[in-house]
Amino acid sequence: xxxxxxxxLAARGLGxxxxxxxxxxxxxxxxxxxxxxxxxxxxxxxxxxLDGQPVAGQPADRPQTLIMNKAAGVICSRSDPEGRPTxxxxxxxxxxxxxISVGRLDLQTSGLLLFTTDGExxxxxxxxxxxxxxxxxxxxxxELDTEQIRRLRTGVEFEDGxxxxxxxxxxxxxGHNRWYRVTLAEGRNRIVRRLMETVGTRVSRLxxxxxxxxxxxxxxxxxxHRVIHGALVQRLYESVGLRTAARRVRRTGQRANRRRxxxx
Length: 264
Hints:
Strand content: 25-35%
Mean pLDDT: 87
Distance between the termini: 17 Å
Order of helices and strands: EHHEEEEEEEEHEHEEEEHEEEHH
Radius of gyration: 21 Å
CATH architecture of the domain at 133-211: 2-Layer Sandwich
CATH class of the domain at 133-211: Alpha Beta
Largest sheet: 9 strands, mixed
C-alpha cells in the first residue's frame, strides 16, 4: 500500500513528518530522480534520496526512546551558530537512524525531554490534537491569588490563540518565592511563562517533570540521559493510539512480503 513520502520516511526514523515536509518544500528530496512534491506517495521500491544521498529503504527494526534531564542553559536545536551546547551533543550516536526531539524546552527551562528514533511516535506526541499532558514544577515570585488562579484555569487570550492550564496545585515554598505544579495539554513555545506573565507574575524557575505517562526520574542527574524500555514505552505508544514500533514494523514487513509475492 502506497504511503505519503513524509509518513514513509518518518517510520524509518529520518525525522518528524513536519520536518520532512519542510525538506520536501525545500526541494531536498527526490523519488526515482524526480524532485518530490507534497502529496507524493511511495510503495517502498523507489529510490528516495535526501540531498542526493539514498535514504534507508526499510523501517528501523529497533526504534529507540530515551529520556533526558535537560539542564538550564542548553539549547534544543541540533546546532547553534553561537556555539552554545545543545541537547544533541550528549546523545549516543546512531547508525542508520537519527534522534528526534519530542518538542523543546526553552534555554532556561530544565527537566524532562523525550527523544525517539520513531518518527511516527514523535509526530503523534507533538501534535496538538493528541492533547498529551505536560506537567511542570513552576517557581513564581509571590503567591498567586484566587483571581490569578481562576484566570489561568479559565483561559487567557494570546495572538496565537487561547491557552489555559488543565490543573494547578500549590507546591509550597517560603519567603518571596512559591512553587506550583502546573499541567497543560499543549506545548506552545514558552506557554507556561507567557501564562504567568499575563496574570501578573514572573517565573523564576521552570522544570518539566512529566510528558504524558513518562515522569522525570528523581535519580537522573541534570544533563544525563537514559534509554527507556518495556511497559513504559508501551504506555507511551498507547497514549497516542499507536501500536508499538515492533508491531508496526512486523505489519509493514508482512505487507512488503505480500507485495513481493504478488509480483513474482
